Known about the structure:
Blueprint: E1 2-11, E2 14-24, E3 29-33, H1 40-47, E4 55-60, E5 63-64, H2 70-75, E6 78-81, H3 93-99, H4 108-121, H5 123-127, H6 138-151, E7 156-160, H7 168-183, E8 187-192, H8 195-201, E9 204-209, E10 212-218, H9 219-223, H10 226-233
Parallel strand pairs: 3-8, 3-9, 6-7, 7-8
Antiparallel strand pairs: 1-2, 1-4, 4-5, 9-10
Helix pairs in contact: 3-6
The chain binds adenosine-5'-triphosphate (ATP).
Adenosine-5'-triphosphate binds near residues 41, 83 and 161.
Amino acid sequence: MLRLENVSVNYGSFRALDNVNIHAKDGELVVLLGANGAGKSSIFLTVSGLNKAASGSIKFGNKELVGMQPSQIVHDGVVHCPEGRKLFPGMSVLKNLMLGAYVHRKDKPGVQKTLEEVFELFPILHEKREANAGSLSGGQQQMVAIGRALMGRPKALLLDEPSLGLAPLVVKQVFDVIQKINRSGTTVLLAEQNAFAALKIASRAYVIENGHIVMEGSQDELLNNEQVRKAYIGA
Ligand code: ATP
């Protein structure tokens, strides 16, 4: 279980997250919905130790993540796939993927096995493994970003806007892959603007506005909620 309790984050005098409470049970796929600037990325950055929480607790199983080094958080199984992919465009696909395995670098056979699993999930990345990441299409680059996160062997995967800027057909492929990853047992926390597609594969979701969680519910509850439909689905 990943559980945030009363997590607040400040950027200077600006309160970006105010007493946020969210959780994802083991194996769940939980969606975070919210407009630009609502605080979704701030949640992920704080869970992965890149932002400092002003107060609150973030537990993964029995471990408290607040105050831990980001590399230790990855080592313990919580891996962040950031918004905008953050690849190294001048490095090969393979090298980008291997960066995700840095915390496991001493376990060479394990890393090799995970790499094979990533190539099985994304055969195109095997084909393009020697190409510079920057030469790939947007969808393929997103697959590199997800593949790199998988190289960290997540038990819980934080996916920040994976469908951003992608063509509809590619968006579908990305969502299919996310569902597959989740069905293989990985807990997924997914921040998405593409609310309909995200809710379709989610078990539960939260709506965040101005740093506050304003709604929480099951897939059905949110898909049928008029406010959510108006604000995020456009129907
Ligand atoms: P987006 O999808 O646009 O990234 P988001 O929901 O992920 O939106 P955050 O990036 O978490 O939102 O931003 C939450 C708020 O905090 C916004 O008002 C943003 O401008 C502000 N913010 C984010 N990072 C910083 C920072 N480093 N310094 C100051 N303010 C920040």
